[in-house]
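A further point concerns the way the authors explain their paired sequence and structure data. The central task, working out the structure tokens from the amino acid sequence alone, is never made concrete. I therefore recommend that a typical entry be quoted early in the introduction. An entry of this sort, consisting of the sequence and the corresponding backbone structure tokens, reads as follows:
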Amino acid sequence: MSPSTSQLPSAEEATAQDLPPADGRRPPGRAGWRRWAFAVVVVALLAEMAFAMITTAVEQTPTIDEPVYAGTAVVYLQQHSLRYNPEHPPLGKLIIASGLAFADVHLDPAFAGDQTQLGRHVLYESGNDPGRLMLLARLPMIVLTLLFGLVVFAFARDLFGPVGGLTALALYAFSPDLIAYGALANLDVPEAGFLLTSVWLVWRARRRPVLYLPLAGLALGAAIATKMSALAGVPVVLLLVVLSVWHTRRTRETGFFQFAAAVVGVALIAIAVVWASYLAVDPRLRWTTPPGLPVLHGVRALADWLPLPQPYRDGMHFQFGFEDQVWNGFMFGRHYFGSLWYYLPAAILVKTPLGLLALWLAGAVVLVAIPRLRPAAPYVLVPAALLLAAAMTGSRDFGVRYTVFLPMFLTVAAAGVVALRRRWAHLAAAVLVVFVAVSSLRTFPYYLPYANEAFGGPAETHLRLHDSNVDWGQDLGRLGDRLKQRYPGRPIWLAYQGSGVPSYYGINAADPLRVPPNEVHGLLVVSDSLIAKADAHLRSLLDSSTPIDEVGHSITIFRRP
């Protein structure tokens, strides 16, 4: 056993000082007050995050993907059918369904449209209240996001002590990206959170493998049962399992059989969770492979040999088909087709608070540089790096939501700064945490279009990025209120990117892209993502219009002559 490894305390050792004595009496004085103070701070941070997410969830109209997931969740509840949204496994939508189960959702049993039409039908065409349904769909994800905050706290506390845990939780709770995407009925935060949980449990398995490795398998299975992109994390987690079992060699005999049993056991539990998620929807697992399924070649064809349900394997065909398409993107004023390898790192620089970027870097350096902390680096830094590398190979430059695991893993790393036994390091960390909090609070309640101060703040994000970075259709309801309050009776021409129905929000508008520009008079309202990728027709309209207002930093209102 190396000296550096022996100096890193276990979770039990790190918390032993906080436990009461065996006779049940609590220690008097300072230690007891400190525990209460830490508990109050934890609750306050989670309450702040909950308030921000719930406010966002109430005020925002459905984003582009949410109606599909909500509609699919309703089908799960009422028809126990897997036919919709096969490109994503069921678990995330089952979590959404846990909220919608409290609503009396009406769905025509004879409905036979596609999944996009399904979302519109459930929210806007069946007599349901879309605002109430979306809030119920989002609440389970909000609760899950808060629980993942506790995982971040616990992971950092295991590594750096109570102050480190609070530092990591504060950075997590004020992360604009985690608030923005955690407030949605979407799959990105659950996938990332389950991966983080699996890694944390594997870390704890260094001391108690029999207890924590099965739990790690459950968390890993939950991740890959939520989004297929989590498969990129499976080799990383299994390698960390080997590392944790190897660490136990000082207390028990460890050989090939122990390594193999641990890896196979975790993998089998994860596979069982995926199967369970499909069987929870339909115990008979009725499934017909859709026609026109993309054909896989080469290494990709190995997907058909995975010991996973047929609908999961078919969903992988759909995902690879999406990756083979050519999508358009937008970055720093440039509209392009295809993907840029540096898109995600550049977008992260725009969308992450400056103080958080500084602490991420400092924490990573501390983890690598300090011998007593170095054993934790493979568990915190390696998964983040490899998952980022995998995400960078994608063909869809749509937003930092594909890297939402970074604010989870790297906030744990950032807390390593408090492990430095220097007063100036603690002071610098406190200042940067406050800087992150102020930057986050200033963007309330417009978290989705957040950009840090170096790039002009949320008001200028649309000049740097598009799609789910800034404009995901979330402000249609706010637009309806703005038009009613400031521009009553004015003719409206609307070019909107989103899944909402404008007329439901009192917006009676014509489509400016269906008529010649010289026929468009009055107010021209355009989603900023459409402005970013404007074609010649829309560009001619924009060039001859005057911007007079904006809504939510995602929609611009122009005056037409």
User: Anything to note?
Assistant: The longest strand covers residues 522-527.
